[in-house]
Task: structure prediction
Amino acid sequence: MITSQMDGGVVTERVSEGTPVVYSESSVRAWWSQSLALAGRQLRVFVRDVPTLVQSLVMPALSMLMFKVVLGDAIGRATGQDSAYGTVPLVILVGAMFGSIASATRLNRERRTGLLARLYVLPINRGADLTSRVASDLVRILVTTLLLLAAGTLIGFRFTQGLGPAIGLVLVALAYGAAFGIMTLALAVNAAPGAPIVPYLGLFSSLLMFFNSGFSPLSAYPEWLQPIVANQPMTPAIDLMRALAVGGPMAESLLKVSIWTVTLLALSIYPALRGYRKAATAR
Amino acid sequence: MSTSVTGSQSALRAPAEARTRPLQQWWALSARGISKVFRNGEFVFAFVSPVFLAVCFYLPLSSVMDTFGVNYGQFLMPIIVLQSVGFAASSAAMRASFDDTEGINTRFRVLPMPSAVPMFARLSANAVLLVVSLMCATVACSVIGWRPMGGVVGTVGLYATALVVGILIGLLADGIGLVAGSPEATSQALMLPTLILGMMSTGFVPVSQFPEWIQPFVRNQPISQFVNVMRASDSGVLTWDTLQPTVWWCVGMFAAAVVLLGIGNRKVRA
Result:
């Protein structure tokens, strides 16, 4: 049996039949165990926050149904393709985005109430809380994606390419969600405490939601707008998810998704770490 | 030495009875509500929301709808106006809810003021926001190609419908805000009806484009009826048959608003 306790900046793990093993708070072992504990806390907070839970799960599912019922036939007739294969990926990504915005709101609230500062002075790994937020976001995205895929079957979404591509589709959602989530975290911790970051992020996400190949076929947009729509982060992700579900070319979409994901992560990780430290130590 | 005071002098010296001036009170509270609307940046959102809606639906879907022979700029106008009206109403609900949770309504109860004054003041502030929203919606719709086709009478009918519906939805939302108990609960209560009734209406696509099983609901729900009246007015072909369902929906909304405001008022008093 292994028992774990924190004592003066070190994590002590006592193996019942052996001598205690001591890890410093900056060790990988401490980071791992503390990140898990804090991720559990984040998930419990998320589950208990009913309005956010409704917004993250019920609203995307309802939006999916709405898009299919309202625009499905019109777009289907115009393109000759079942609109569900655009709608389901679109709503999965939108769910991931709006969930990340809710997480950013919570982070701002915890910063305002002094929780970040309290965590910062405790003898725990400096990166544990930030890691826990990203990890809990990934768990939330995974659960939301699976639920929305299940709901998608009601409107005609099917995996025709087998298990591997189906797992690939979920991984695309996770990669997109992680990149957007870390970008949102970076913005949240670097913004001034009273800054209207949530309305602006909401507006930006809503724009992305309407101008992509999942909402309406690319050819339906005005010509001057098509290059923007084709290359914004959501469109290649939707095209890749569609290809993974029903087949089709995916090399270009995969390349674009990879570029967007790596770029967003590269631009966001350092500002997130620096901003988090600043937010936690600010008086 | 005794002094005698005439009746008129004693009347002057007696403490004046506290007099209520409902009109002045209404004016003061209306000014408070309107200044709050300005401060909170609601006028900015009143402009942004119709523009955003017009752009987000017109650009992606206009060419798709052209294949069905629909002039989408003209077609979208009523729903953009009604969504702007809906924004003003949800704003009213949130204001009523904040007033309730912050305890200002309870304070108003103990002042020498008729109980209807705060409600009428909120309605006035909402009417101002509603007019601004309608103006902004008109600009947004003009940009995407809407033009008034029903002459003076038709255009007046179009805006009169929007204004009446807006005031009634505002009253209803005000009641919801008072009854719901908190801004969060108010937001939740408004979110689903707005989404369902807004999207599942003839505002964005013609009823023939919906699956058959849902067409009866889409055709008869209130937003579709309001849209029908506004389109008929805009085309100059409004008849009593088209108008009648809207009149009944308005009567129903007014009755529901009265009930909710009554419950909300009683809750404040308790």
